[in-house]
Amino acid sequence: MILKKDLPDIDEFVIVKITKIMPHGAYCRLTEYDIDAYLPISEISSGWIKNIHEFIKEGQQNVAKVIFVDRGKRSVDVSLKKVSGKAKKDKINEYSIEKRSEGIFQKAIAASNREAQKDALKIEAAAAAKTYTELVNNIFEGKDPLSASTDKEFKDALYALVLKTIKPKSYTVSYNMELVTTDTKKGIRTIKDVLLKVQKLGVDVLYMGAPHYRLLSTDSSYPKAEERIKAATKFLDSYKNIEYTLKTNKVQV
């Protein structure tokens, strides 16, 4: 986030760094906040822990879930065992993207020689977006989140860096297809005609050795890439004298 909160919220996933291991738990630093938290030994693993050092190490970074917050005492407890594999992966990805986006913001400050105005620029940016990721994404999508900014030099530097640094995502949906025709007289010509029309729908066709082919559809939007495949199969369903089967491959990003 651009302007950090004083304390995390209950059930929030946070990045932690183990700083001190005790017999019945450990202290850790919340990387995204200027505060320490306590990790009870009962929240490290769902199984019985005989030696805490077998599960955590000082200096180790991990994803934890906030399970207790006392705002008056600025006390926070976290849990490792309440973090699923998916939640951990999502949080690490979110954190990495946010750090990259913050790096772009910092480079724009340096490029426009605005170190002295750094805090004011952060406040201005926070009025347009909660996180650096949101700010960068809005700029990349052609929006103008800093339209009210009076610092044109910084704004120009930031927008230029975003467009130079961020690459659009691309999704490729891939299907293996077996295609045959019941037309014994014009079989080869029928197959060629069918595949040509499929390509005109925006789907690439790779010849894998008859009767095997691969259908590929690429787009910055996964649903749009998948929709082209659906349009191709709808066309194949309407075509006479052919039979086909499809088997999906993994989506490539």
User: How would you sum up the major sheet?
Assistant: 5 strands, antiparallel
Name the helicity range.
25-40%
Q: What distance separates the N and C termini? A: 26 Å
Write down the Rg.
27 Å
How many discrete domains?
3
- Taken from the alpha-carbon principal axes, the silhouette is flat
Ranges where pLDDT stays below 50 over 5 or more residues in a row are none
Would you list the SSEs in sequence order as H and E? EEEEEHHHHEHEEHE
Task: Supply the helix-strand structural class.
Answer: alpha+beta
Strands of the widest sheet, in order across it, are: 3-2-1-4-5
According to DSSP, the number of beta strands is: 9
Number of helices: 6
Mean pLDDT: 92
Oligomer: single chain
Kindly estimate the percentage of residues that lie in beta strands according to DSSP: 25-35%
Outline the fold blueprint.
Blueprint: E1 13-22, E2 25-30, E3 35-40, E4 61-70, E5 75-79, H1 85-111, H2 118-126, H3 132-140, H4 152-165, E6 171-181, H5 187-200, E7 204-209, E8 212-219, H6 222-238, E9 242-248
Antiparallel strand pairs: 1-2, 1-4, 2-3, 4-5, 6-8, 6-9, 7-8
Helix pairs in contact: 1-3, 1-4
Description:
The chain has 253 residues and is of the alpha+beta class. The chain has three domains: 13-81, OB fold (Dihydrolipoamide Acetyltransferase, E2P); 86-165; 171-248, EIF_2_alpha (Alpha-Beta Plaits). Helix content is 36%, strand content 27%. The protein is built from six helices and nine strands; from the N terminus they run βββββααααβαββαβ. It has helices spanning 85-111, 118-126, 132-140, 152-165, 187-200, 222-238, and strands at residues 13-22, 25-30, 35-40, 61-70, 75-79, 171-181, 204-209, 212-219, 242-248. The strands form two sheets. The protein has a five-stranded antiparallel sheet, covered by helices on one side. A hairpin with a 2-residue loop joins strand 7 (204-209) and strand 8 (212-219). Helix 1 (85-111) crosses helix 4 (152-165). The mean pLDDT is 92.
